[in-house]
């Protein structure tokens, strides 16, 4: 009988020979899988959904257009007759519905966005999500009953019904958004909507503590009520409750229309992928007058937000100030702003008083061919270039980069508060028991004196 370790050695040798033959002689059928990943000759069915529609659709439709060209059956479920009116996506069929719960033209919605106040915007969005959950779940379910989807492609914003239906049916789902900041686990990245900087690398300890500990706790407390209401809506369509407000997306592939150099670099889950910028192959042509002007003035920027953009006057001022700094620094000659409707003449001024601000066209006559070195070539700062790829925690040091100081302070504060609460509670119980005992003893003593008398 062969020794046990000899049998193991022979078995490993057989495995090695098998791999060697497969790689050397091209016997691909022996081990390698089919690259089609199980695709049959029949096209796969994909349902793409969005509650918002409008500007949230192009990033989805660019991907869906590629999948359709490869033979997949695509069905878009979204408000508004978007694909039929589009020159780029008219080949994609769309199930159209009216979203009465999310009206971007309503006074409440418009007022919340123009005030640029997150605590006004948030309740409007949450209320729309809860009220629209059951109607949209039923719409998605009806469409799925007709086409039997193999994959759900979901716009993330206020669209938990899409992920819940995919979970209920046991089908895969992919999410897409322009921003996955709410899903990232890197502490040095924060959400500017909550009053924090996007990059917390150079912020004070107090700001880092507030954005990493206090704000999430406030968010959890604020979301308890809406999450309970959302689970009640889930129960009405026989969906189990889920206590993560982001939805059933923890094990889903999430795509972000973002890119390195614009987004703060971070070490995230491989399920979270930056695939941007996702833009169409072609855009509608400019008018002949604009096209001729831009050709004659190559250092002029044409800026547009599109017809679906909602932007506050405060953010308009910020963008225009950035353009004005570029003009003052002779980086560009001017900007054509095609959708500006806010009067900014009293809020902005150029360092060069001879230049004038016009609501549509901003011009500066100074010329500059860029920053060049002594040989006439353009300078490239490798340190700045690499900073777009290096995560901030490597520059913050081990303790600060891992947020050990913030988390350590949070643990100490918790222990102090918990210890103080426990000690206070113990003192109250102790004095209560002592008071009851003294009261009982005095009552016994009083009864004993009465018996003696």
TrEMBL record:
Keywords: Membrane, Signal, Transferase, Transmembrane, Transmembrane helix
Keyword flag S-adenosyl-L-methionine: no
Highest taxon of source: Eukaryota
Positions of transmembrane segments: 406-433
Gene3D superfamilies on file: Glycogen Phosphorylase B (3.40.50.2000)
Position of the signal peptide: 1-28
Recorded GO MF terms: transferase activity
Full protein name: UDP-Glycosyltransferase/glycogen phosphorylase
């Amino acid at each position: 009988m062969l020794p046990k370790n000899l049998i193991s050695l022979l078995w490993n040798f057989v495995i090695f020979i098998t791999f060697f033959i497969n790689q050397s002689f091209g016997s691909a059928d022996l081990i390698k899988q089919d690259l089609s990943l199980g695709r049959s000759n029949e096209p796969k069915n994909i349902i793409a959904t969005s509650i918002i529609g409008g500007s949230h659709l192009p990033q989805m439709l660019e991907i869906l257009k590629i999948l359709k060209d490869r033979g997949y059956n695509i069905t878009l479920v979204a408000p508004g007759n978007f694909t039929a009116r589009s020159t780029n996506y008219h080949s994609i069929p769309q199930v159209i519905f009216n979203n009465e719960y999310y009206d971007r033209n309503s006074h409440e919605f418009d007022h919340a966005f123009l005030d640029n106040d997150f605590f006004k915007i948030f309740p409007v969005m949450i209320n729309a999500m809860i009220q629209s959950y059951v109607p949209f779940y039923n719409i998605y379910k009806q469409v799925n009953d007709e086409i039997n989807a193999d994959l759900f492609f979901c716009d993330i914003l206020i669209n938990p019904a899409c992920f819940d239906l995919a979970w209920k049916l046991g089908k895969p789902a992919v999410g897409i958004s322009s921003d996955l900041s709410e899903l990232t686990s890197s502490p040095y990245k924060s959400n500017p909507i909550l009053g924090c900087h996007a990059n917390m690398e150079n912020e004070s300890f107090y700001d880092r503590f507030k954005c990493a500990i206090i704000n999430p706790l406030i968010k959890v407390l604020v979301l308890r009520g809406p999450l309970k209401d959302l689970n009640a809506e889930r129960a009405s369509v026989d969906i189990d409750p889920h206590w993560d407000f982001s939805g059933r997306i923890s094990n889903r592939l999430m795509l972000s229309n973002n890119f390195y150099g614009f987004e703060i670099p971070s070490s995230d889950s491989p399920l979270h992928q930056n695939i941007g910028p996702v833009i169409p192959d072609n855009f509608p042509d400019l008018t002949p007058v604009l096209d001729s002007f831009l050709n004659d003035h190559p250092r002029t920027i044409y800026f547009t937000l599109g017809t679906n953009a909602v932007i506050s006057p405060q953010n308009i001022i910020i963008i225009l100030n950035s353009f004005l700094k570029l003009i003052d620094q002779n980086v560009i000659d001017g900007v054509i702003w095609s959708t500006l409707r806010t009067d900014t003449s009293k809020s902005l001024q150029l360092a060069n008083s001879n230049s004038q601000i016009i609501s549509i066209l901003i011009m500066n006559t100074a010329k500059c061919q860029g920053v060049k070195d002594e040989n006439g070539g353009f300078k490239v700062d490798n340190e700045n270039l690499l900073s777009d790829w290096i995560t901030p925690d490597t520059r913050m040091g081990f303790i600060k980069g891992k947020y050990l100081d913030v988390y350590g302070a949070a643990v100490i504060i918790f222990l102090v508060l918990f210890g103080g609460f426990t000690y206070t509670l113990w003192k109250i119980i102790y004095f209560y028991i002592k008071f009851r005992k003294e009261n009982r003893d005095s009552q016994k003593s009083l009864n004993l004196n009465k018996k003696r008398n």
